[in-house]
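Lecture notes, structural biology module. Today: joint structure prediction for complexes of two components.
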Amino acid sequence: MSGRAAIKGVGTSHFARQPDVAGVRLGWQAAAEALADAAVAPDAIEAVFAGTVFGEPGVVTRTLQHLGIVGVPVLTFENACASGTTAFHEAWVSVTSGRYENVLAFGIETMTAHFSGPITPLASDPEGAQGLAMPCLYGMAANRYLHCLGVTPQQMAQVAVKNRRHALANPRAQRAARHTVAEVLASRMIADPLTLLQCCDISDAAAAAVLGPAEGRVGEVAVRAGALASGKHWDHRSELAWGWQLVADVGRTALEAAGVGVADIDVFEVHDAFTIGEIITTEALGMCDLGGGGGLVESGHTSQGGAQPVNPSGGLLARGHPLGATGLGQIAEIAWQLRGRAGGRQVHGARLGLVETMGGGTSGIDGNACVVIVLEATG
Amino acid sequence: MSGRAAIKGVGTSHFARQPDVAGVRLGWQAAAEALADAAVAPDAIEAVFAGTVFGEPGVVTRTLQHLGIVGVPVLTFENACASGTTAFHEAWVSVTSGRYENVLAFGIETMTAHFSGPITPLASDPEGAQGLAMPCLYGMAANRYLHCLGVTPQQMAQVAVKNRRHALANPRAQRAARHTVAEVLASRMIADPLTLLQCCDISDAAAAAVLGPAEGRVGEVAVRAGALASGKHWDHRSELAWGWQLVADVGRTALEAAGVGVADIDVFEVHDAFTIGEIITTEALGMCDLGGGGGLVESGHTSQGGAQPVNPSGGLLARGHPLGATGLGQIAEIAWQLRGRAGGRQVHGARLGLVETMGGGTSGIDGNACVVIVLEATG
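The predicted structure, tokenised, for the full assembly:
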């Protein structure tokens, strides 16, 4: 490591069901905003780190061509739901290692024109053969929590109520709403016990960040640490739900590298593709004990105005979950928060923020990927 | 850069039309062979760098799960036809920079169960709207060569004759054959002037390499240099065909970094998805002047037994072109050549080898990606 890296600027498109808008246009909006925010010219970008899951080959270079970023290494990552955060992580490593100075991290996904139902594994995969679409995998984790760990359906629903309410202050969110717990629980059943309003939407969006060497200027957001790993073998007889241990391992690695404890973090963006996901994540990050994630959200601790707001943007549940764009959407939100530029959803006095993204789908391992990034305000 | 990296072992599956074989099985064959060849245990692998274009999300982690490689960073790249070579390049950088010691580079693609015709861009893309499937893009380049640069149809066909003949000595190649120039030219027209036998096959395969710090042991293959870039804006009025300048730029960068000239290279594996591709590439790498690529193949210079054999494996034309696996298939071939283990296709006395892969599809830029790697025998 030859130096510290900082976020110089961020940008996103709207997160929305916008099947008629070309991916290239969404990508352009996000990257152009990030470059302008960073005051970095396109021809100063030395390399691009992009994330997409279902993006057609060429969508990234085509977007860059329209931005005037050509002739440089373009590294596009697929890492399930963590693709965008993986791209950010690798961009960060490339700066801290001295490989590049100015780089663009970028995530893009257009889903609504291609998918109508949940993302379903191939029938030739073990999960596909068992009908284990993603809502089912999380549904099983949710049942484990209901039956073995004392979390209540109402607490689970509180995650959806909180995050959709948070999104009311986010003009780029897809599914802001003022719901009651009863409404969440009464919505259509998707994968028992997860109802429709406990599941994120598919989405079309792009998000981006410009990184470079930390200079300590006001407006920069320092990348204090990051960690990335795939899961170890997972046995369903474990007392820990799928993904718990992976988030715990990667979270601990990142926090230790940052030299801070989870109690020091002022604001979080974490992977709430389903309500149970946020409960698992807050526990695994150490914000409470195993089984305490339900009480944590119920207490208001993780709400806007609480001690440690989680998903002030609305999270995946309310901002929407365009897979490859999600991680950089989380990064952009925390960057805005740490610069005091989050408008009506500002977490006052936020100095340290944490992004966590989980990528999954392979049931025999504890998640395909988890990435945790710790960010810090400058100046 | 904290040190030099070497290839410790390589492996591949068969390259074939094998739609009934799961990608995970092909991946397992390649990676297990590479690990055994390197005498590196799966749990010594610290990170995985994988390439695939159309691989379903999860295919890489699922393969690794079966190998016992879990809990480590898994970085999966999409970079068009250069996806596998991109993964290798990034694995190499991760070792030279001291980020990791033992890493696995890995490429996988299963195509024949999903595609029946050529790979065609989306109708919403400019190329798709114009019907510019890959054979058409290369067909236009071929016509430029026929009409403006004096290359003859017979010389173009010679590339297919040579590479399919080379593959007769490669038991893992998909389309080895002893053809005449007349047969190649008489085969069905695909994209004027490119006939069927001048086009590579889609394929199902995987390939892998284990890298680590160079120790100078016999059997290692040192990575002398590598370079990676995307293309700059391309204007069809240029005197240089699509991709020429990108290959020239990346090739020059890699050769200069290696401290050798192209005349020093003993054996090449280059991107001959279509016959004209090899002609463009040999020119752009500096083996001959612009327009001289036809005469070069006709002279026998690039044939097995010639001064500088190109594509002794059969190349993409005869080994087959499973997109994400291609680059690591090229790497494996050069590694076998430099270790004197290429059997009936051994280029005698080969000490320096070069791999070049071109990834394209976006017509407004001079290629989505090009990667060039220079490898050297040890001991």
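Point to remember: The longest strand of chain B covers residues 204-213.
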